[in-house]
Amino acid sequence: MPTTQRRMKIGINMVQNGGHNSGWRHPDANAGIANDFKGYAKIIKQAEAQKIDFMFLADGAAVRIPHKDADELSRHGHIDRFEPITLLAAMSAVTESIGLICTASTTYNEPYALARKFASLDHISDGRAGWNVVTGWSEEEAMNFGRDTLMEHSERYERANEFFDVVTGLWNSWDDDAFVRDKDEGRYFRPEGMHLLNHKGKHYQVRGPLNLERSPQGYPVIAQAGGSGPGRELGARIADIIYTGQKDKEIAKEFYADMKARVAAAGRDPAQVMIMPGIMPIIGATEEEAQAKLDELKALVHPEVGLQLISKMFGDLSAYDPDELVPLPLPESNGVKSAIEQWERRLRETPMTIRQVYEEISISSGHNVCCGTVEQIADVMQDWFEDGACDGWNLMAPYMPGGAEDFINLLVPELRRRGLAQSEYEGGTLRARLGLEAKPNPLAGRVSESSESEEAIAVSH
Ligand SMILES: Cc1cc2nc3c(=O)[nH]c(=O)nc-3n(C[C@H](O)[C@H](O)[C@H](O)COP(=O)(O)O)c2cc1C
């Protein structure tokens, strides 16, 4: 494939034991894969063999399913998961080239600690790390971090903006060549190559420097997925990848155009920011076989599970008959505003029953489910890609490992046959392989005032 041809970027979204909340019940599922590193690694090695750009791990530091008691919760599959940076560090040791991107929240982390973890992952993986910057949406997560409720939307984004600046400031603590480790001279690093941050902002106070050499990518690849106004503004300012949950091509095209315009307005090159919606392919040898697979997956959803899953966005609908239409308007929410707005718009155009909605949400957490033969699904992906709706896709499996193996071994080769997917990894880092510009230290060569500490640094080990 000529390197000049625009190619699809492809990620594999490794949601716990599959994107379908009840996928663990599928007869072929490895129901324990969320705790099975070797099971994960086997899938990722296959993805790497097919030259998939990166694996992506969504995350939240909680069991994020609202529940009144353990009995109610006990029917859900999305309970357990590995801490993602730990998992990706281990994954980097058993892979060579595939990118390793995961979510970390700006609401429940400290910037110094997180800057250090992602820089470490970038070193350990030889420049394959990526950070999906989120502000969090769940009350359950808030309750694990000293709060009774979710922090207000605008405050979350205000903190996220400052948090990101602190993290990138810390990633610029050292010139790329600061660490000379000159044994003869007895000089470990060049003093002018160190840049103290001395950040004192509204939410964070961080002196620096980071206690780690600048990492191979400088800045790990940045992904972002907030779809609200403030979420889009943050993405336009900081992200290399915009991850989104679009289902309708026309809405996706609006989103794509809006994001690219916002990126340009932020003074950045729109071609350097990739819009990558999620998609869950359900593949059959024939259309009928694919539809039967989808029906089988839907039938795995227990009604109690379905109603609970949609309660965050749609309110408590347990008093309604599941075959009634969803009542509108949808309630106000402090959580994933963009998703609620999309649903409201969609249900006004095409009313759906409560059961239809919960089946759809259970299966893919609201992502686009694309059901058909390999050729039909590739047609949809190609059409969106060529028609200004996306720059690539985040592939999501309904259950593991079979759901993922289907698209890795059947769909991706078809995309490659069409000249849409890469046949080799090109470039030394994830950033380079994705065609993103390098991030040399903007402070390099500058002796910044802030390279002097304002106070004596205590020595400890
Ligand atoms: C496709 C998609 C993926 C997301 N992945 C995560 C995630 O892994 N963890 C998380 O806490 N939030 C995740 N979010 C939530 C957003 O990052 C954001 O914090 C949330 O949507 C609230 O912001 P918004 O109102 O701007 O959408 C995701 C959102 C979308 C649309």
What features would you describe in this structure?
- The chain is of the alpha/beta class and 461 residues long.
- It has a single domain, classed as TIM Barrel (Alpha-Beta Barrel).
- 38% of the residues lie in helices and 12% in strands.
- It has 15 helices and eleven strands.
- It has helices spanning 37-49, 70-73, 84-93, 111-124, 139-143, 153-171, 229-238, 249-265, 287-298, 303-314, 337-349, 354-364, 374-386, 402-417, 430-433; strands spanning 9-13, 54-57, 99-105, 129-134, 199-200, 205-206, 221-224, 241-244, 274-283, 368-372, 392-396.
- The strands form two sheets. It has an eight-stranded parallel barrel with strand order 1-2-3-4-7-8-9-11, surrounded by eight helices.
- Helix 4 crosses helix 6 (153-171) and helix 13 (374-386) crosses helix 14 (402-417).
- The chain is globular.
- It starts with 8 loop residues before the first strand and ends in a 28-residue tail after the last helix.
- Mean pLDDT is 93; it is low at 455-461.
- Bound molecules: flavin mononucleotide.
- The site of flavin mononucleotide has 21 residues, from strand 3, strand 8 and helix 11.
- The site of flavin mononucleotide (FMN) has 21 residues, from strand 3, strand 8 and helix 11.
